[in-house]
Every structure is written in structure tokens, then in C-alpha cells.
Amino acid sequence: MSPSIPQFQPQPIPTIVTVLLVLLFVGLGFWQLERAEQKRILAETRSSRLDLPPFQLTETTTAGEDFEYRTLLAEGVFVAEKTIFIENRKHMGRNGFHVITPLNVNGSNRYLLVNRGWVEAQKNRLLPAVETPGSAVSVMGMANIPLPPALDLGDAEPSSDASPRWPYLTLKRYAHWSGLDIFPFVLLQSDRDEHGFIRSWRAEIPKEGMHIGYAIQWFAFALIVLPIWLRLSWVRRNKSGIHSDDDS
Length: 248
Known about the structure:
Elements: E1 4-8, H1 12-50, E2 55-56, E3 71-78, E4 84-91, E5 94-105, E6 111-120, E7 137-144, E8 165-166, H2 171-178, E9 182-189, H3 208-233, E10 234-238, E11 243-244
Parallel strand pairs: 2-3, 4-8, 6-9
Antiparallel strand pairs: 1-10, 3-5, 3-7, 4-5, 5-6, 7-9, 10-11
Helix pairs in contact: 1-3
């Protein structure tokens, strides 16, 4: 038997599959690095805005997304009949609601949604009875822009006579339901304020390192594919050019 010699001869199908996998894994790795950079910028933005002195909302305030994470002050009157209850909110293992009440900011026709905190759910499934001051109040807290869940199969724009019991809150949904001109954020009321409930807001710190770890994994997958392709690309042939499956 003629001795066989190894030859580098990439095969079409493994080569195409390898190229596609490497491009996919490298692309996912760079996407995770972009996500890490976004989280880093978000963390820096959050930290810098929390360090700013409290901002007083007035009738002339023009507010946008640049107010998110800032500490705000506002004075006005709560509109109790436009209160909604965000269900399935947990506190210390117990189920309950977040109570959202609009505040008519003094001297304006605009309303600030105030998350007044958590109240425990009733066993009879009825909405809890909450007290709302009828006179002018002063509130303070951090501005937050609520986001919808990744998958929502419910009514995106509830009618004005819909129940005040909601699975989640978005500004668009509330504006449509209430007919009020609202600021583009919600105030997470400080636990130092009166006229609120249990307020224990979790500080959601963006995790930059998590995305860097994912990026390393994707790049590693790309590197793993290459030696597999190299192994498949080496074939043994005898001196006459006939392929040999015998590696001995």
C-alpha cells in the first residue's frame, strides 16, 4: 500500500458553514460590546443626574428624556379620580399594587404622574382603599420613564371607562385613558415625603460587565469553530492522488 500524505483541501460545505458561524459569532460579540458601552454611558448619566440639585417643576417647565433620573420637586393638587393601580408588584414577598396618582402642577394645565408607593393586595381581589389628600401638597422624587413589557397581548390603548387596575404603566396608555396632558416621566416619590405608601425603590444599576462576559463567550465560540474547520480540511491521499480514509 502506498503511504498516504496529509493535504490541506477545504471542503465547500464545511467552509461555507464555518464562514457563516464565524461571522455570526463575531457579530454577536461586537453587539454585546456595544451593549456594554450603552450600559456604561447609562450608568454615568444616571450617576451624574442624581448628583444634580433637585429641580423645581413649574408651569413653564419644558421637560423631556433629559430629566430621567433627576431629583424633582413639584407642588400641586392630586387628582384622586384618575388614580390607577399597577398590579402584581412585590414587597417583602407579599403581593400588592403600585399606586399612581396624577398631580396637577401649580399654575399649569399639566399633570405629573406620581408613583406613591406600594400597598398590599386584598384577599377579596378588590382594589385597596387609599387616602389621597385633597389640598395642595409638595412632592419630591426621582424621574423615571416606564417601559412596556417585551410581550404585551393586552389592550395597548385602554378606553376612558376601563378599570383602573392595570398590569403595567406606559405614558401613552395613561394619556389615552385619562385625557390629561402629562409630563413625559413618572415621579418615584421619595420615602421622606408624606401622603405616600411603602416606597422602596430598587436602584437598577446597569451591568456593563455582564455584556463584556457575553462578548468574550461569542468570540470564543468563533475561535472554537476555526480548529474544527481546519481539522475537516486536512485529508490524506496516497502518492497516486487517491483519497485514503486510513490515518494509520
